[in-house]
Specification:
Blueprint (H helix, E strand, L loop, with lengths): L4 E3 L2 H9 L11 E4 L2 H7 L4 H10 L3 E7 L5 E8 L4 H12 L10 H7 L5 H5 L1 H13 L7 H24 L3 H10 L10
Parallel strand pairs: 1-2, 2-3
Antiparallel strand pairs: 3-4
Helix pairs in contact: 1-3, 7-8
């Protein structure tokens, strides 16, 4: 029988560091983390202490499986080799030459959780378009069609953001809208 996997949220690692909880390596479960942790750890002044927590509890990397077109398949692979430090170093190396703003969607996240103001949220579509165009500018093939698609997304994203602002950012109202599908109608996602 295989051991159950337990995903360790980044906040749990923080609680472990603060001594609020106490996790340890266990024989009956496998603690897992993802590369999403690395984006958050990267913003820390002391990434090693977060990686040490994962290492001490013998956490394993759970990696998304992508198809030949780099699309998520809905499956994940447990990477049992390497340490959190080694995986983090590989992540940093892979992202070193890429000008990627990993805080891009922070205004959206803050708004949905009941905070922030409208200004940064209204700037989101422009920043998103700039980010995509920046990331694809050096591709070795014609990106004209891709640029057109990115430009066509901007008005849709602006419209969705305007609706979010109109609805307000009351956390209870936002949660209810997400659950009912009212916040982002299916027609807006097409």
């Amino acid at each position: 029988m295989s051991k159950p996997l337990i995903y360790i949220d980044q906040n749990i690692i923080g609680l472990q560091l603060q001594g609020i909880i106490s996790l340890a390596k266990r024989d009956d479960v496998t603690w897992v983390y993802s590369k999403e942790h690395f984006a958050e750890i990267r913003r820390s002044d002391e990434p090693a202490k977060y990686l040490d927590v994962l290492d001490v509890i013998d956490a394993k990397l759970l990696d998304l499986v992508l198809d030949e077109n780099w699309k998520i398949t809905g499956e994940a692979r447990l990477n049992e080799s390497g340490t959190p430090h080694q995986h983090y170093d590989a992540y940093i190396e892979a992202n070193r030459d890429m000008d990627f703003d990993d805080t891009l969607f922070d205004p959206f996240q803050v708004w949905v959780n009941g905070g922030g103001d409208e200004g940064p949220l209204k700037d989101l579509s422009e920043k998103f378009a700039h980010q995509i165009l920046s990331l694809t500018s050096e591709l070795p093939f014609d990106t004209t069609e891709m640029i057109g698609k990115v430009k066509s997304i901007k008005p849709k994203l602006d419209s969705m953001i305007d609706e979010m602002i109109l609805n307000g950012n009351d956390i209870e109202k936002t949660r209810a809208a997400f659950c009912s599908g009212q916040l982002i109608p299916d027609s807006k996602l097409d």
